[in-house]
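fwd from M.: "can u put these together and see what the complex looks like"

so here's what she sent:
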Amino acid sequence: MSIDTRFRSAGSYRAPYHMENSDAAILRFPFPFPEDHYMYSMNIEPHVKAGAVDSLRRTFDVDEHYVVECREKARILSEDPGRCIVLPHMRAAEWDFVELAMGSLSEDYPDLFHLSRDGTRWRWINRPLNIDQHFVFGDAGTLPYAPFEFMARQMQGDFTLQDQRDNDLWMDGGMVTSQADWSLKFDLGMSFGQWHAPVPKAGEMGIFDRGLRFLLMLQHGRPVRRLNWTMTVNPRLDTSPENFTIWGRDRAGVTGDNARDLVHLRVELQALFRLPRSNAILFAVRCYLLPLRDIALVHKWRIRLHRVLRDLDPALSAYKGLDLYRAHAVHYLARFDNNEPTSKGIGPDQDALVRT
Amino acid sequence: MNPATGYAATISSVDVVAPALRRFVVSRTKGAFPAISPGSHGVFAFGNGQRTWKNAYSIVNRSEDGRALEIIVRRAEPTRGGSDFLYRHGGPGLNVSVLGISNLFPIVRTGRRHIMISAGIGITPFLSYMTEMRKDGMDYALHHYTRPEEADAFRAMLSPCDPSRVRVHEGRQEAVASLRMLLAREPVASHLYVCGPGGFMEWVRQTAATVGYAATKIHSERFISPAGGRVFEVMLARSGKTITVGADETLLEALENAGIDAPCLCRGGACGMCRVGVINGRPDHRDHVLTGAERDSGDVMLTCVSRSLSPTLTLDL
């Protein structure tokens, strides 16, 4: 496949919204529910190049939306440069990120990305975005942006950099443009406990204490991942507090008739990497959006999503901001649920879609 | 890197730093070691055919091209033999694999000034600290305490460093006289890092607390070289197996030799990764991780250094 046909060239993540998924994109969606009921858990597993769906099988996943998403990211950054902030003591972590990103992208997608290294003289080629950059590794003056920003602009999803000190993790940098209603400007400099404070229930369940203890021991070369989810009205990547006035009201516009098109399952593939020079932790949040009409093409997923949403704990529903339209989504999905048992795991259990 | 086998390497050179200290350069046969943050340690696996040891050592330096790591090893009492074996038999060509590299003792990069206090072999993490601090233009000072007979060796080791930032103190008398004063003289923003024998670190910590250092500004890494002890039996509740822990092996080694997939990371009682539930029996805690309450409860232990006070332990494994 040539680059031209692999990536979509048109699409819009803001009004008028326009985002479509191919059959392959739907079948590789990281559906987040291994069971018919959802509650918080320490659902962390090694981030190895394997998994029930294709989107889990690369260090950093690149899909058909890559070019349009990078374009949207650039537009958000030009409107609000404060979406990318890195504190000065995270300089080593910036170069760690550059090395990890360029190394793994060129290894996982040799036809799209290429990295050549001659000592500290590096050359980076990004074919889909038409970038051919010679630079000196460790010398920020040889790149058109700061090192972290240079690379994070060329990747789908959000990234934050956590410094480790005093037996805690501190969010001391990041680029955040496709977030589920949180703000880097607000969370910058916070500790692990502080930035998780708004999450209901999980704290008292001991999940953050265990999670932090686990992450403090995270080793280089052994990244981990988990899936997290919420729902979003319209295919909008940037559901940020900064822009709440733009997207917040959309949640009141969902009806029984339009839920199938407007309501999207929003899944975050979260991967965590220990960075070797800085001892910092990279938190990568890759966002996938799939409308209910596309989920309804997968037999198992539409049944399971119905049961999960129907039986969701009210505190979680409120925290995730679903209260205004959850009933409409449940109503739409109920027609597919004939009470049959479903298989464990997140895989779609089918190789092709039947579009009627 | 394959997590089970680590980075394959061999010893490429050995030099005698002092009668009891050897510096080893461990080189990869192919490829490079990953970049390393100052204060990191590696778990090094080596052996003589009959026996494999897995010991943690601070990484003093990684070569520019990433092919080689440097460690310094002190001859230890041959209770378990790892360091003793390396000291006696670790020569060029010996295969060593580096099973994992992690950092339990990082530089606090937000700090405005850093003061390092070491004794003896405790100098090793600070050698990598100073490389970085010099490169990044950080404000720092090192005070190293040594027994008189090794003073020349440490002076030689520190000779490439900026002499205005490094001071070698000889003998116990000078230590007692100088420490309190030099800690008290530091600005309030300084971060203090301590590395050396357990008793030394405790003394530095207490002295620092007395002159007003906040606990969050005192950093130390307390590795324990696991010691042997009485033989004991371990019953594994989940797998139903019973294994014997010999006098000169650790519980973790006995588990590994029996093919049990036991978690671990630092192998020195410092990280807490190897904690397991204790269902029956009285553990002999030798780590620096568990809280007083956890220790007293007796229902959790670290397999890498701790042993048993009762003849049998039942573990949740």
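replying to her w this: Chain B has a mean pLDDT of 91.
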